[in-house]
Design brief:
Blueprint lengths: L2 H29 L3 E4 L2 E3 L2 E2 L2 E2 L7 H10 L7 E5 L4 E4 H4 L6 H5 L2
Antiparallel strand pairs: 1-2, 3-4, 5-6
Length: about 100
């Protein structure tokens, strides 16, 4: 394949991926409405597995996602919207204690 064609295809693929992230971010932003339910419960501040501020779900949320399904280890969490940088949930829970529970089934 011609080098310029290959580069063009790669550039188009990157644009599609960025458009997907922008679409997800826009939809998630519509759902974002932080609410204090009580002095110890804060709701609606995580949308589409994104938390305001740091961009990371809290430790309890990470744990919950992994306990729900081992498939969630591949969930991509955006850490930098401008650069479209993501990290997989599995990377945020290295050595996760529950992995052995799934391996024995």
């Amino acid at each position: 394949m011609d080098k310029s064609v290959e580069q063009s295809l790669l550039h188009n693929r990157e644009k599609v991926i960025m458009d997907i992230w922008e679409s997800l971010f826009t939809e998630a932003e519509k759902q974002f409405c932080p609410t204090e339910v009580s002095p110890v419960i804060y709701a609606h501040h995580v949308v589409c597995a994104l938390e305001s501020g740091s961009g990371m779900p809290c430790g309890a949320c990470r744990e919950f996602f992994m306990q729900v399904s081992i498939k969630n280890k591949d969930t991509e969490i955006m850490v930098d919207y401008d650069r479209r940088e993501t990290v997989k949930l599995e990377a945020l829970l290295p050595g996760w204690w529950g992995l052995s529970c799934y391996e024995t089934k």
